[in-house]
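lol forgot to send this yesterday, sorry. struct tokens for the thing we talked abt
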């Protein structure tokens, strides 16, 4: 990709009068503004990748595995047609709303538990060191491995799904909050203390703003993990939601609906990540 450079003022680090940085331009380490690809080029590149993906999807289902009676029915055009038809049915929107409700409730529980725990671990090196083996062991255990125990304790149904989502989302939030707390300038806390700020005031004016950026990014990571866990979790004894819709399509030998439901799950996940990315201040 070709780029052009605009020399910046060495004293102010700004562009000279009459020049400006357009969206997509960045500043190089040497003090020049590197003009990247235009927005049109970026969108064309994204469209080309999307077209290539659909072409590979078609090639795999309609050529390479054309003789497979299952895979051959899951091509892109049949999946898109079925998805359009599904979006006209109220049960599809009900499944989406049920899954989103479980996702948001699980994320809320993870925030309530994970953010205070992360603040505690980030505030004390001793606490962080002492709990590291347990935290890492719990973090590296798949949330779905907890499913049998969760079902025994809560029964099969929506409560178990929410609990599994919360388990999946808690650890990214704990680690992100802990990292944000460790990154706070201790000098700022000392200044606030010197000025007579109470502990609650220091938390409100220094710690919370300092942790907010890391926490937003952690919530985005937790959202992605939770969405991935939610769908298989809804295959454990529930009768609604997108995970159940996948099983229902399989049991009815409706492979077009199966492909359409998988596509719908991906689209909803992409939209959720887009919202979270903008919420985290990323573009």
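and heres what i got for the seq, position by position
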């Amino acid at each position: 990709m070709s780029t052009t450079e605009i020399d910046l003022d060495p004293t102010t680090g700004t562009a000279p009068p009459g020049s400006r940085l357009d969206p997509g331009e960045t500043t190089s380490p040497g003090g020049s503004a590197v003009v990247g690809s235009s927005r049109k080029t970026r969108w064309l590149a994204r469209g080309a990748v999307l077209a290539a993906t659909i072409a590979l999807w078609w090639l795999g289902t309609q050529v390479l595995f054309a003789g497979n009676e299952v895979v051959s029915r899951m091509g892109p055009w049949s999946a898109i047609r079925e998805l359009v038809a599904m979006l006209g049915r109220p049960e599809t929107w009900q499944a989406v709303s049920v899954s989103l409700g479980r996702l948001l409730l699980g994320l809320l529980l993870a925030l309530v538990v994970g953010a205070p725990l992360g603040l505690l671990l980030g505030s004390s090196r001793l606490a962080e060191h002492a709990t590291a083996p347990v935290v890492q062991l719990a973090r590296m255990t798949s949330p779905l491995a907890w499913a049998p125990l969760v079902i025994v304790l809560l029964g099969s149904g929506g409560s178990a799904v929410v609990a599994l989502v919360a388990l999946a989302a808690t650890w990214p939030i704990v680690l992100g909050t802990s990292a944000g707390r460790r990154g706070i300038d201790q000098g700022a806390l000392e200044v606030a203390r010197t000025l007579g700020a109470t502990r609650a005031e220091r938390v409100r004016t220094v710690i919370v703003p300092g942790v907010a950026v890391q926490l937003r990014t952690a919530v985005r990571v937790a959202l992605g993990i939770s969405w991935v866990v939610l769908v298989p979790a809804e295959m454990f004894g529930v009768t609604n939601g997108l995970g159940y819709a996948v099983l229902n399509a399989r049991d009815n030998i409706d492979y077009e609906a199966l492909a359409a439901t998988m596509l719908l799950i991906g689209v909803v996940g992409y939209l959720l990540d887009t919202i979270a990315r903008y919420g985290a201040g990323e573009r």
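The chain has ten helices and three strands. anyway ping me if u want another try
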